[in-house]
Amino acid sequence: MSIIIFYNRNYNNRLRYVLDFVFKKVLNLSYELTSDYDFFIQSKKAKIYYGNKLDLDDSIYYIFEEGLLHEQGVRFFDIQVGKEFPYNLYFNDKKDVDFFSSIFFCLTRYEEYWNSKKDGHGRFQAKNSVLFKNIKNGPINNLIQIPIVDVWIDLIRKTLNEKNPNLSPIALPSFNFIPTYDIDHVRAFQWKGAMRTLGAFLKDIFQANWNVLNYRFKVLLNKRKDPYDVFEEWNSLEKKYKLHPIYFWLIGDYSQYDKNPNYKHRKFKKQIINSSKSAKIGLHISYKANGFLNKMKNEKNRIETIINKNVDKNRFHFLKFALPFSYQQLLKIGIKEDYSMAYAECIGFRAGTSHSYNWFDLEKNESTSLMIFPYCIMDVSLKNYMKLKPNEAIDLCEAVLDEIRKNGGNFIILWHNSSYGLSTWKEWEGMYQKILERAFQFKR
Questions:
Q1: What would the mean pLDDT of 332-339 be, rounded to a whole number?
Q2: CB-based burial of residue 65 (10 Å sphere; 0-12 exposed, 13-18 middle, 19+ buried)?
Q3: For 121-133, what is each residue's pLDDT tens digit?
């Protein structure tokens, strides 16, 4: 039975999409949608009036309607971000706040349809987002590092509770932690084949990398463990913290940016199979296959054949995807969940939320069955892009984690097995476990 009645002049795909996300997905509530004003006024349920303001009773929650949800297609418009918390979005110089249009704008990545600026890999960059705004909130220094959509939804939740003291309080969404791993380089030194191994030896000698050369020799002579072979350690952490991780395996053909062993390599296949026994497996669509439907299908078939299971999860290698084309292709090859919604160059919330949500295809103006799981933290972003020191990184991660905890949501992180062992990551040893410990405290 619904406890909320929502008034608007008409129904459409966009409005239903946002209401389903806010109330059904995030707040776990049913709602009734009506365009009959008299019926709305007479209802005993918690009321939300979405439209042009009338002389309403104080118990009715009024939310201004900008108009975006009653349109089709994509148009350019001026949009500004408020200077203070809760950093509302203002459309076309209007002074009123339309939470539902703001949420729709963020979730659909509306701005990525009109902004043609891309980096060298064809990726939309954080600096071109409306949400890329300098703020100061402890270690957090940019609005992108706050799940602002979740903040707005929590304000809606609190306002409904305040206006309806006689109804059961609407609870804060639960906190969930989902660790994910990208396996771009299953081994640092092993399983490379004769030619690649010889080339690596020559490169070490030419560049006078004597420590790496010595390390490589010992690993290949089985006198030392390969630094990227951290799977047993991860498995122990998963048991300790009762985690349910997802491993995304890169099994595309060798290329400049795709450097795992051949997918037929016996030991490589065995490693994938072993991980599938205790964790979920996802496809890591290769850089080379990206955009080519048949190649993407082939990679999906490869990993399904290896583990003898259906694989319906994906993350694009290099986070290289473009809307709506990339997501339309995922649907065509049978992918149901995508975990690519983030930026490479900084941590944070590309779609403004930590919650999973159905992808809305603006080109077709309809909600789809593809579920988007945005992650907020990646090891490489912290170290290589943002150039943070380990202590700075852990402070920022804890601050982002706390934002999710306050508003309820999913803490999804991305870590690489290649972020271990070698000298370039030596200062970062133990970082992943520190994040796990902090997340585990919130989860209990």
A1: 98
A2: buried
A3: 999 999 999 999 9
Q: With 0-12 CB in 10 A as exposed, 13-18 as middle and 19+ as buried, what is 3? A: middle
DSSP state of 90: E
SS3 assignment, position 437: helix
Return the beta strands (E) in 23-175 as ranges: 31-34, 46-51, 61-64, 79-81, 89-91, 134-137, 140-142
Which tokens go with 123? 């990726």
Own/partner long-range contacts of 124-129 (Cβ < 8 Å, ≥24 apart): 124/322, 125/343, 125/345, 126/343, 126/345, 126/346, 126/348, 126/350, 127/345, 129/350
* Contact status, residue 372 vs residue 357, Cβ threshold 8 Å: yes
- The alpha helices in 250-376, defined as continuous H runs, are 266-276, 293-307, 325-332
3-state SS assignment for residue 358 = strand
CB proximity list for 84: less than 8 A, separation 6 or greater: none
Mean pLDDT of 146-151: 98
The DSSP letter of residue 143 is G
Q: CA-CA distances (angstroms) from residue 207 to 38, 200, 227, 433?
A: 79, 10, 20, 33
In 10 A of CB 84, how many CB atoms?
7
Q: Where are the domains of the chain?
A: 176-443
How do residues 367-393 score in pLDDT, each as one tens digit? 999 999 999 999 999 999 999 999 999
Token pair of 376 as six digits:
């907020």
Give residue-wise pLDDT tens across range 176-199: 999 999 999 999 999 998 889 888
Q: Residue 323 has which token pair?
A: 């809307």
Asked if residue 183 lies in contact with residue 250, where contact means CB atoms within 8 angstroms, the answer is: yes
CA torsion, points 309, 285, 433, 408, in degrees to nearest 10?
-90
For residue 79, pLDDT over 80 is answered with yes
- CATH no. for 176-443: 3.20.20.370
Q: Which amino acid type is present at position 437? A: E
For 164-179, give the DSSP string.
-TTSPPPPPPPPEEEE
Residue 393 to residue 397: CA distance in whole angstroms: 6
Confidence of residue 423 (pLDDT cuts 50, 70, 90): confident
- Are the C-beta atoms of 142 and 400 separated by less than 8 Å? no
Question: What pLDDT does residue 443 have?
Answer: 66
